[in-house]
Amino acid sequence: MPLQDNSNVETAARQAISRAEVKQEYFSFAELAERWRCSRGTVYNRLRATGAEVLDFAPRGKRGKKAIRVATVLRIEERRMKRLW
Questions:
Q1: Cα separation of 12 and 6, whole Å?
Q2: For labeling, which of 5, 15, 44, 84 is most exposed (least CB within 10 Å)?
Q3: Mapping DSSP to helix (H, G, I), strand (E, B) and coil, where does residue 21 land?
């Protein structure tokens, strides 16, 4: 019977892991373009206009993967939000 108890615990652990929500810490420019329904160029301009910090994985002057913190994105969205009425 102890073998069955271990398998139940393992099954419960696997289910808990599969249900766990993975919190995203960074967005890419493409993800923000999709989220904001605009082009990647517009995302770049909006981030530059707000002075947002961008994590760049490329050497200076080279193209590479860039990432923006979720907290920064939420702050930008909060500022740009307008009341409808």
A1: 10
A2: 84
A3: coil
Model confidence pLDDT, tens digit, residues 17-74: 666 566 789 999 999 999 999 999 999 999 999 999 999 888 888 888 899 999 999 9
Query: Is 84 within the bounds of a domain?
Result: no
Establish if 65 belongs to a structural domain: yes
User: Which amino acid is it at 67?
Assistant: A
Number of domains in the chain: 1
Residues 47-65 as b/e (b if ≥16 CB within 10 A, e otherwise) read beeeeeeeeeeeeeeeeee
Helical ranges in 1-85 per DSSP H: 2-19, 29-36, 40-50, 70-80
Is 12 a domain residue?
no
Separation between Cα atoms, residue 60 and residue 70, nearest integer Å? 23
Cβ atoms of 26 and 18 within 8 Å: the answer is no
Phi, psi of 77 (to 5 degrees): -65, -40
